[in-house]
Write a structure and sequence with these properties.
about 800 residues; mainly beta; five-stranded mixed sheet; 6 helices
Length: about 800
């Protein structure tokens, strides 16, 4: 770096060469954007600094914790040169200027990290280059500058670390206590007390009221003198939020916070924190429209807090200024640049706001696993004399993430109900009937199953996550009403999730975050609730208090109960380890141990070992006692089970039918509830002759009238095509059923993982939910009345 005095002179000349009160592009790098990480200005260095996760390779291997990086972990923007430069450790500057070291990451999937992984400080003992460096993680606005020692404090992935700008050195501060490892919060420096204040963020699972959990941590303070974090006792705090920056107003001795993402809605409220009194209070001022992901800076020369850009249901570009002295907002000139992620900070003495956007590469058209590696840097020169614009601040309510118009058609309609009844009465057997034009259409849930609420005649449909829907809500398809009932304000993770994986913690409201539904939930006719086992992902090393009190082998294996009437969730007793496949029975929900994750290799791929004897227990969830009870003693049981393992309940004989064990995952086992014993049935394949048995495809239903189990999913010989198999329980035989394919969805959607099949015993209907429009599309419901005796005639057509 050039001498500071020289840098400042050149930077000032650069800043004042720009037009005032408008954004000017200063540089553009096709790689270098830091996914969800903020820039900060260091006055003593005269530069803006940026650290955080970066990757421009969608094929980066998740098993390798090292990444080839286009620039160093820490970079700074040289205003005089107009570009970002590596801020290399002094002892490695010469060597790494020739060739950069590899970058560490905390864990990726398809080139993306979630921000909820533990950030580890790589020290000399384990790092071949001998320079302590934290693994590159998402930090959001959980970074702030401390002028006393010219350092930056980072709180990321549970790590509290300081970066000494002059020495170019990292240090793990190792405080005795730590906030929960929140993601998407904000840090601000209190110069009067030499403290850092943290507020906001989510993806944790803190103790709530009673058995409830909450996904936020409130306000925390880091004291440099004590080198420790404390949670102050506060009577009032802002509602939980993420993806908004809190800044210090040094004139008025306040912290100022505007808007953010409440997971249900985009907020438009203004809050101030009195640093002397340690008190939060809500502002009564009118202000900007609701948003999250906007930039926020404080200008000490004018005393204004300036925000701009961000997003609600669309990207925003307007700019506003808040004056705490008058408690008022006013519009200012300029249209802020937009991007997937936006960050900015201010160099007050140069009258310059520097902003970066993260965007995708021009040729990237992927709809999933999207990277945003392009970093564009902009400058905005402040001129208070001309920056105000004539616009009226209004009182804005929060904007729900779900547009209320999406719920149109949920109400009962007598004409639609009559037409549905006639359609179901007249439907032919052994044909998939598309139930077109429902009152409301539900979003597709990726890699998910469904369950049937026999008390209310509805398909209960939950899940999503990777590449698909991110809401925590349950949709209910009411068969008679031919419409989907939904929830007005489902909770979603922040924008940084972007169809990713491995959401940690619970929602702000204490609900389970969405995940691929697989077979992890089933309807319980005893409690009239939906029961789900959804292990709560937690940042490594984070153990909230409620977990310490759980007398369970797997306290994070949370059992959830969902009431379809009140649309509320309740945390129940922890499930036994590995219970991830559930099925409805008259006794309650039964869970099978399908511990497939324990067989993932380091790369995250499933290993196969069908020869090893396993004891995979079966459990009954007794809702009245709130406990899981093992059924049967330890015994030989189906092994090598997988997420595609299917379960069905034989109501004639009182037994669970499991398909998917063995080396090839094509074995069929039966667990008899009277004898509490597993039996490997080894059924024969009757048709086609000499064909191999089907492999597990997750979706199966038992039809008592025909005493058969139907399996639907990709064909064994060609997984791009669907296959419908029939297992005759009495005959102990497989038959491939030739049912004409549905034409209302694209061929690739008929056999995709986005499928769910349930049985409606009252109406004697097999109901199949598929998707249209890809992973982010809408659900499509099909019905079939199956008759085994007429299945042969279908094959002959």
């Amino acid at each position: 770096m050039r001498p500071l005095k020289y840098q400042l002179l050149l930077a000032a000349a650069c800043a004042f060469a720009q037009p005032s009160n408008q954004w000017t592009e200063l540089s553009k790098d096709m790689s270098g954007a830091r996914r969800g990480s903020a820039i900060r200005y260091a006055p003593k260095a005269g530069s803006f600094f940026l650290w955080g996760f970066l990757n421009d390779d969608p094929d980066a291997q998740q098993e390798n914790r090292l990444l080839k990086i286009p620039e160093y972990d820490m970079v700074f923007f040289d205003l005089s040169a107009g570009r970002w430069q590596n801020h290399l450790p002094l002892e490695k500057q010469a060597e790494w200027s020739r060739q950069l070291p590899m970058g560490y990451h905390p864990g990726i999937y398809s080139g993306i990290t979630t921000g909820s992984r533990r950030t580890v400080m790589r020290g000399e003992a384990e790092s071949y280059e001998g320079v302590p460096r934290p693994a590159l993680n998402i930090v959001a606005d959980q970074v702030a500058y401390r002028p006393l020692d010219n350092s930056l404090l980072y709180f990321t992935g549970g790590l509290t670390a300081s970066y000494d700008i002059e020495r170019r050195a990292w240090k793990d501060l190792e405080p005795r206590h730590s906030p929960p490892p929140v993601l998407g919060g904000s840090l601000a420096y209190d110069p009067g007390r030499d403290e850092m204040v943290l507020f906001g963020g989510g993806h944790v699972a803190e103790t709530g009221t009673g058995p409830a959990l909450r996904g936020y941590a409130g306000t925390w303070v880091f004291s440099y003198s004590r080198n420790d974090w404390t949670r102050p006792a506060l009577a009032v705090e802002p509602p939980p939020r993420m993806n908004t920056r809190m800044v210090a107003d040094t004139r008025n001795n306040l912290l100022v916070l505007f808007g953010g993402d409440s997971q249900k809605a985009y907020l438009a409220d203004t809050w101030v924190f009195d640093l002397a009194a340690k008190v939060w209070r809500a502002s009564t001022s009118f202000g900007p429209p609701p948003r999250a992901g906007h930039f926020t800076v404080y200008d000490p020369q004018t005393g204004l807090v300036i925000i701009g850009g961000g997003y609600n249901r669309q990207d925003l570009r307007d700019m506003w200024a808040y004056d705490a002295r008058t408690n008022s907002w006013q519009g200012i000139a300029g249209e802020a640049p937009a991007g997937f992620y936006v960050s900015a900070d201010i160099a007050p003495e140069q009258r310059l706001i520097l902003l970066t956007t993260d965007t995708r590469k021009p040729a990237d058209t992927r709809g999933c696993n999207t990277l945003y590696p392009v970093r564009t840097t902009y400058g905005y020169r402040l001129d208070p004399k001309t920056m105000h614009r004539a616009v009226t601040a209004l009182r804005h309510a929060a904007m729900p993430k779900r547009d209320p118009r999406e719920m149109s058609g949920s109400a009962l309609d007598q004409g639609r109900m009559k037409a549905q009844a006639e359609r179901l009465r007249a439907m032919p057997v052994n044909r998939w009937l598309f139930l077109a034009d429902p009152g409301r259409v539900a979003p597709l849930r990726t890699w998910g199953s469904a369950t049937f609420d026999s008390d209310r005649g509805s398909i209960l449909y939950w899940g999503g996550e990777h590449c698909g829907y991110s809401g925590s809500d349950v949709d209910a398809y009411m068969v008679d009403a031919h419409t989907w009932r939904g929830e007005l304000e489902p909770e979603h993770p922040g924008r940084g999730f972007d169809k990713g994986v491995s959401l940690a913690g619970v929602t702000f409201g204490g609900r389970p975050f969405t995940v691929h539904g697989r077979k992890i939930y089933a309807y319980d006719p005893v409690s009239k609730r939906m029961i789900m086992v959804r292990p709560t992902g937690l940042t490594e090393g984070y153990q909230p208090e409620w977990m310490k009190l759980e007398a369970s082998a797997c306290p994070q294996c949370v059992t959830w109960s969902y009431d379809p009437v009140s649309q509320t969730w309740e945390r129940k007793a922890s499930a036994p380890p590995g219970v991830t496949a559930l099925v409805t029975t008259p006794l309650g929900v039964i869970g099978a141990t399908v511990e497939w994750r324990s067989r993932l290799d380091r790369a995250g791929y499933l290993t196969t070992d069908g020869s090893r004897a396993e004891d995979n227990p079966v459990y009954l969830f007794e809702s009245a006692k709130n406990q899981w009870t093992r059924l049967g003693p330890p015994q030989a049981s189906p092994g090598n089970l997988y997420e595609m393992t299917s379960l069905a309940y034989d109501t004639r004989r009182g037994q669970v039918i499991l398909h998917g064990g063995g080396r090839n995952r094509d074995e069929l086992w039966i667990f008899n509830l009277k004898t509490k014993q597993w039996t490997n049935m080894q059924p024969k394949v009757v048709s086609p002759e000499r064909a191999a048995a089907p492999v597990c495809t997750r979706e199966s239903v038992y039809i008592p009238s025909d005493d058969v189990v139907l399996l639907y999913g990709p064909a064994r010989e060609d997984r791009t095509k669907p296959a419908l198999w029939e297992y005759s329980v009495g005959e102990n035989a497989w038959r491939l059923v030739d049912i004409p394919p549905m034409t209302e969805v694209a061929p690739q959607q008929r056999a995709s993982q986005n499928r769910a099949m349930v049985y409606d015993a009252k109406r004697d209907l097999v109901l199949l939910v598929l998707g249209s429009g890809g992973d982010s599309g809408q659900s499509a419901v099909f019905a079939m009345r199956y008759r085994r005796t007429q299945a042969g005639s279908a094959r002959e057509e």
